[in-house]
Structures are given as C-alpha cells and as structure tokens.
Design goal:
This protein is globular. By secondary structure, the chain is an all-alpha fold. It contains six helices and no strands. It has helices spanning about 1-25, 40-65, 80-105, 105-125, 130-155, 165-169. The protein folds into two domains: about 1-70; about 95-169, no CATH class. It comes from Kiloniella antarctica. This is Tripartite tricarboxylate transporter TctB family protein. Keywords: Membrane, Transmembrane, Transmembrane helix. Pfam families: TctB (PF07331).
C-alpha cells in the first residue's frame, strides 16, 4: 500500500512539473531563424511526458485502490550508504557517472564522438561484456549516434558541439 501511495505522489509531482514547464515554454524567445520555432521540440517532449505521467497517475491510483499489502516493514540495515544502495541503484549511478563524463568532454570530443563513446560505455556497463556484445555495442553506438547527428546537423540544421577533435579536420 505504501508503494502505491508513493507512486501517486510521484505521478502528481511529474504532472505538476510538466504543467510548469509547458507554461514556461511560452516564454522561449523566437530569434527568427528559419525552420521550426524554438519551442516546438520542448513542447512536444513535455506533452509526451505529460501523457505518460497521466497514465502513470491513473495506473497508480487504480493500484492503490485495489491493492492491500500485508507485508511487514523491512528490518533496518546498519550498512554504510554506498554499500546499502549500490546494488539497488547501480544502474542509475552508472548513467549519472557516464553522462557527467560525456558533458565534461563535449568541448574536446564533440557531440558525435562523445555521444558514440557515451552510448558504448553505457551499454557496456549495463549489459553483458562478451566479445559478441562488445561488437554489438560498437555497432549500436555508431549507427544510432551517427544517424541522430546526421539528422540534426543536415536535416534540422542544428548546430551541435563539434569539439576540438572535429575542428582539426
């Protein structure tokens, strides 16, 4: 029952966040560049996130009204914070670590190479580390980031960070 109540609160906070961000998207200035208006993509993503949050809210309300949990509280662990939460949240830790490295390396590697390394490192850290999977991770990183880079650079004419490495060429 506690888990369902937490889900309702999280879903409500997500909906509130989306509402604030959608209203803030009306303050995005139009600099007059040709193509899509600057608020188009943020609003699209926020509306998509709002729809998913609404589904999450509805699902969590249904669960909280139908679920009756008779579980006892888990005993308190006296383990250190890192040891206590590492296995529970290690994937999130890996994501934040690699994303912060990716952001800090954008000036040097640029979006293309930095993105490829980020996707490869994340797939390798979260997945299996066999030779077959490493080759698959390389292929996925090159194709997915390369395709997105081509789409944003040439079709949508977005100036992505090129980095010092690409500016040499």
């Amino acid at each position: 029952m506690v888990r369902a109540k937490q889900d309702v609160i999280v879903a409500a906070l997500l909906l509130l966040f989306c509402g604030v961000m959608i209203s803030a998207s009306y303050d995005i200035r139009d600099l007059g560049y040709p193509g899509l208006k600057p608020e188009t993509w943020p609003r699209f993503l926020l509306i998509l996130l709002s729809a998913l949050s609404a589904l999450y809210f509805i699902r969590s309300i249904k669960e909280s009204s139908t679920t009756k949990v008779l579980e006892k509280d888990e005993p308190q662990n006296n383990k250190p914070f890192i040891q206590k939460y590492w296995f529970k949240y290690k994937n999130a830790f890996w994501c934040f670590l690699f994303f912060s490295i990716f952001l800090s390396s954008l000036d040097y590697l640029g979006m293309l190479f930095g993105g490829m390394l980020f996707v490869f490192a994340l797939l390798t850290a979260l997945g299996e580390r066999t030779v077959k999977n490493l080759i698959l991770h390389i292929i996925i990183a090159v194709i997915s980031v390369g395709a997105m880079w081509l789409l944003f650079t040439y079709s949508l004419r977005v100036n992505l960070p090129e980095g010092a490495l690409l500016s040499i060429w």
